[in-house]
Amino acid sequence: MPAIYRASFGFLRRHPWQLGLAILGICIGVAVMVAVDLANQSSRKAFLMSMDTLNGQATHQIVAGPGGVDETIYTTLRVEHGIRRIAPIVSGYAHAGEVALQLLGVDVFAEADFRQYTAPANFETDLAASPDTGPGQPEDMVRRFLTVNGSVLMSAATAAELALSPGDSFEILVNGKQRQAVLTGILRGNDGREVGGLVVTDIANAQYWLEMQGRLSRIDVRVAANDEQRLSEIRGSLPPGTELLSASGRTETTAEMSDAFMTNLTAMSFLALLVGIFLIYNSVAFAVLQRRELIGVLRALGVTRGQTFRIILSEAAVVGTLGAALGLLAGVWLGEKLLVLVARALSDHYFAVNVTDVAISSASVVKGFVAGLGATLVAATVPAIEASSFQPRLALTRSTLEQRAGRAVPRLGYSGIGLIFLSALMLALSGRSLVIGLIALFVLILGFAFCIPFIVRGISNALAPFAGRIGGTAGRLAIGGVGKTLSRTGIAIVALAIAVSATIGVSVMVGSFRASVSDWLGSTLQSDVYVGVPRGSLDPALIPDLTSLPGIAEYSTSRRAWLETDNGRTRILAIRMAPGSYAGTNIRDADPEHVWRQFNQDSAVLVSDSYAYRHETQAGEFVTLNTPQGRVELRVAAVYQSYDSNDGAIMMSRNTYNRYFDDSAIDSIGLYLNDGFDVDLVMNSLREVSEGRQSLIMNSNDNIRDISMAIFDRTFVITNVLYWLAVGVAIIGIFGAMLALQLERAREFGVLRALGMTPGQTGVLVSLQTAFIGFLAGLTAIPLGLVMAWVLVEVINRRAFGWQIDIAISAQPLLAAMALAIGAALLAGIYPSWHAGHARPALAMREE
Amino acid sequence: MTTTNKRAQVRIRDLSRSFWEGERQHDVLRNLSVEFAQGETVALRGRSGSGKSTLLNLISGIDVPDAGEVEVSGKSITGMSERERTLFRREHIGFVYQAFNLVSTLSVSDNIRLVLELNGIGREQADQRILKLLDAVGLRDRAESYPDILSGGEQQRVAIARALAHEPVLLLADEPTGNLDDRTAEGVLQLLDELVRQAGGTMIIATHSAGVAEYSDRVLELQNGALVS
Prior knowledge:
CATH architecture of chain B: 3-Layer(aba) Sandwich
Number of domains of chain A: 4
Structural class of chain B: alpha/beta
Radius of gyration of chain A: 33 Å
Number of helices of chain A: 26
Strand content of chain B: 25-35%
CATH class of chain B: Alpha Beta
Shape of chain B: globular
Order of helices and strands of chain B: EEEHEEHEHHHEHEEE
Strand content of chain A: 15-25%
Strand order of the largest sheet of chain B: 6-7-8-3-9-10
Radius of gyration of chain B: 17 Å
Number of domains of chain B: 1
Structural class of chain A: alpha+beta
Oligomer: heterodimer
Largest sheet of chain A: 10 strands, mixed
């Protein structure tokens, strides 16, 4: 290595703490980014692969509304139209013990063109030696599959999880009812794809178990590309309310539901990287400042500006490469932890995703590495330019540097104000774009960050005289020193302030959201007891028995179904309101009495906040639905408050639903008890009545509210993890900054010690200064945090999920943020305080 | 104008340089003209703030004048771009400072090698030259030591070796004995004198020490930015 590079890298070797902290800062920033990317991609990939497995080679699917597809359509297409490459499917969910399974009912004779693993040639069994079942030839297996009562197939992994072998009988819970199943064979995915978590049965058995006699969940269709004639023929033969849709399009639409969630997580991960960038800048800037004399000597010896620039950038490249490489390793580890949280949140809110292993994609790795290295180089560019502009006169004194930094502070402040205006402009003009909203948020953070040194200098200068009166020269040195050493303290304060403001922003947003959801649950949950079936509907014969029990005054019913509409897949809520239910629905900007009259008498519907925002729908407009009666237009009576689902919902009365849809299913009922009746006693009676008929989920009002809030809190666990990681990066940064600052001031402390200041006094001086730095970071973080909270609530959440949240600000998150800032700074200042206090004056003065 | 009969190595004409202190302009050099001949050793004396260091910085191209011209070996430094000045300095000028200014992260030999590398001298040739220079300054046994464990006199001898490593035509020494005791200072001046004269180079020593005069061909006195003798 050439001597000029050795001269420069030698500095890093001599300051391993500084080097280590810079690498750690980049490492965490990259790790968070890579982890979120891997967790998002792995979840999505797992979902798409499972859908791909289920859909097989189907190019299209015939689907209908909530009641499913009439099975005679399949017969008509196959027999009358001679279309052979179609397969009927009945699908649902089941439980074997604690294991959740997807139930797929198939016609094995129609499967060959669709799913390889359900093709008889791929069934495996070790029953060949059994005299009861005959030899293990494909035809015998098909025979067993079709003739053995409750026959099912599953993958070897699923069978192992359930401790089953071919031939074993076991109980399976479908639609809340216990069924007897027999494992007659093992599914073998011949293309290596996971078919785990899946249980395949004959279509007639599936219809029986899922109580879908005469109905199909869908018909899979396979047509050659561009065979429009065949597609038109199929479409032409379908009755109203039944549609032919692209299979991949349906999967994508479902996957896209989680896009906003994933974009928000990605943005959170960028926050850690942004904090990291400030810290890298800080580290490099420090390293440059500390070497100003070395650089001056090199320049005097004939090192050009370009060479100086390249030296600093190559150092940054080495640090960035090391940090990014370590960040990738840490990212994979962290990704596995986050995957559990992401998968759980996706399963709670969007679609079932069963994934435990992170799929490491080269794209994520390259992206993380480039981001880490790129961020480091970008952050190092300014100090590198600064270093190359040093005049080789060896007269670049500390005061000259501070004067230069001092002159830059107002300019930076003006640029910051400009950026804040730009951000406001972006927010105002970007319509509903989430990505531009997030970019505007980052511009806003940057704008605030640029203003912070100006504010810090003002506060520090204003407080210094008071500090002097209380703490004498030492007090003035500690407090006034911060503003006078902005070139060294400014960036550390900015980095800590950004991280702390993020905690305020996110805390206020989550707190407001939580309060809104809690209020909403308080008003929506009007019933005393809720009864339902996990992933199924209530047995119609059971409902009268449940609702006629003593103590039950009224009941409401609810049915949640998906419908393909012109606006994509839409959730339909069919509600039979009990008299007490109406007050629980918060109608936006309309007279509730008038709205409910239209709802009950005129087939009008309500749309949720999210639906109204996403589809720009308002009261008085119409929504078009495909029903078995054909396309119907229903008037929107009002918009209602709901945090039920972020893709929005259309609510209609049960009468309206029955009028247009051939579906009598009821998912859950809400029971209103007479005064004086004990909830637990009624729930015991409900259990007795349903015993042996259907396995029900029962929750009291309080219980369901707790469960809902637990799901809410679970969703934000990942957000908390991410912002605490950002705070972690900031603490590391402030530690590095304090260390470098105190090392740089070693001579100053040496002089103070030589003049008679005790080690304790010197330590207190440093601690006082670090606490003040923390205080300044906390103070400047508060306005930024509050504005950030406003943007998160009013712009980001609205654009991402369509939710309307009332901002609730309490003192608690602000005080917590201030405590965090001061605590983090004090924590970071412990070693520098000790170091400053124990520095030997003679040595310290000589080191300079 | 102070002139010499020998061929001029450094020619300075009407050189002015001022600095601003807030609202106040401080003239450091005022219309200064002087020539330094090849092989000549000149002591530049004057009190602190008289402009000695500024003059050396202007001669080396480290700083640029407000007015006037500096010519070294027939080339106008003042007409050059920043990069050209850097490359010219790298090749033709050596510097010795009061504070030594060795690179603390490099060993003694690497401090010298740094300049040789900058001038594109190959490793083998550089090794030979480093050994020769260390022999000359009496520090061969300290080749792999780092500057911070050397005494002041030793550090300055390394600095002299580094300044002469690329055989510059002009050596500028800014208070080279300012940080040394009398005996060590004497040794350093002898060494400088011997090595520079041996190489036939020109040396300008800025100093306020009277002892430097006996090693100089001429002594110039700077007062308030102008030459008085």
